Structures are given as structure tokens and as C-alpha cells.
């Protein structure tokens, strides 16, 4: 008897996939909790150009709590698959114990969404005014594609496009590499006549950064970590480096060869950390050792998954003197 496609999807991915399809975000949290970062910014909710915040930054604290839970279960005698399978089953009957754990253990703080606040501020100072869809922002659904749920992804892609068009969106500026690639390429492939322009934050900033006088508050030795989707999928390798090099007071250093297109992975992304949590953590630790081997006091990247992984790696190696920041935060500080 042949198995259905969903039967071979790891429980961790199935749990996240169900959250996307039923709650319109990878965590399964209320949309209002994700949108609260912008409540004091007075951003228009209807605009031809919108800032796409994505799940990773908006639910950073809860994502960290869920990842910690999965890693803990994986180290136990029973492993992570059985509990995640049970959690998925419980969700179907209306009991979301995973959600209860996230709420109890979440360490969410306003600083989790600081990259979003800073990104909007940077765009505004560079003359790029954006709207934000808040609770109406759809989940791009990229993880459905990577988990092999292609039919579900295609259906979600149509819903995403229809939602954006109904809200008058013509242009999207994304900050999460995965969301940006999904909206630019994967959703477009599923929707005939797709006509929404999608760009990443670093593309927009790099084009305008020469007009700004950027100066970091102090002398800083910085190493840049390339997120896989930003560099390999979107091809944005030199753009973030040009931005960093344009900032007075910053010394940009690189690992001997694991940078740019040869940058090694932090171990996160595509749901990998939900399926292979221990291996994911090992990769994070290895990457942190490569980056801190440059003598940098700060790791800069632009992916919420990378930030979470690198912070966990730094904690493991006890590198308390090294900071992880999003590129948007660095540029905002330099302004």
C-alpha cells in the first residue's frame, strides 16, 4: 500500500505546515501578536509599496522557544519525532500543547523585532516610504514548498497573490531572505500573470546608501555571515558588503575562505532545525567558530533564522563578548 505524501513528511515539518495552512504563520500564533512591533510607527496599512516583515522576525521569541523545546526533546530517550507527531494530532482535535509551551516559555521582548523597526526607519531616511499590512500580511508559505507539500504550496501561493492584489500592493520590499525569494520566484511560478515587483531590503539600501553619510558610533571589527537564501538563491553577496564598507568606523573582516558563495550554513532554514535539531545545532557551533576566528567582535547577517542559530552557537562556545546584529540595525545605528 503506497503512502500519501503527507505520511512521509517529518512530524516537525507537518506541524509547521499545518500552522501555515490554518493560522497563516509558521508558529500558529495570533496574527495580532506578530504585528504589534509596528503599532507605534503609524505606517499606512494600504500602500502600493509595502514592507513585508515575514514570520521569522515577528515571532522571534516564540520561534526560539519552540526550537529549544525540539532540541531538548531530541536529546531525550524518546527523540523529537514522536512528541511532534502527537502535537500535530492534538492540534487536529483542538488541543495545541505546543502553542501553550510557546506562550509559557517564550522570551519575546521588543528587541526581537528591532530589525523590523530599524529597517523601516532606514528606508524612510533614504526616501523610501512603505506601508505595512499588519494582520493582513499573508504567510508566504515557503516552508510548504521545501517540505514537499507542493500542492498545498501552490494553493497558498494563489491565496497570497490574491490577498496582495486585493490590498492594492504593487511592490514588496522584503527583509527575510526566504520570504523574499518565495514571493519573487516560487509564488510567481505558481501564478500565471504574476505582476508584483519583489525586492530585498539590501538591494534597495545599497542603491541609495552613497547618498547617506554613515558613521558607526564606535570603531568596530565586524564579520558578515551570508544567509543561504540571500546569497545562493537571491544572489545578493556584494550588496551587504558594500553597505558595510560604506560605514565609517567599521572594519569588515572575512573568514579565510568560507564567505560569499562559499559561506557555510548556520544549520537553520527550510525546517531543517525541526527535523535534525542536534545536527542543526552542531552546524551553528561550527559556523560560529569560523566567524569568531576572524577576531570580530560582532557578527552581522540578515536572516532571523541565522540570527537565532548564531546566538545559540555563541552561547554554546561561551563567546559572551561577541554580538549578533541584523544589517538593518547596523545601518540604523550608523545613521
Please give a handful of descriptors for the protein shown.
3-stranded parallel beta sheet; 4-stranded parallel beta sheet; globular; 17 helices; Rossmann fold; alpha/beta; 335 residues
Write a structural description.
This protein has about 325 residues and is of the alpha/beta class. It has a domain at about 210-335: Rossmann fold. About 50% of the residues lie in helices and about 10% in strands. Strands 5-4-6-7 form a 4-stranded parallel sheet, with helices on both faces. It has a 3-stranded parallel sheet with strand order 1-2-3. Helix 1 (about 10-25) packs parallel to helix 5 (about 80-90), helix 4 (about 60-75) crosses helix 6 (about 95-105) and helix 11 crosses helix 13. It is globular. The relative contact order is 0.14.
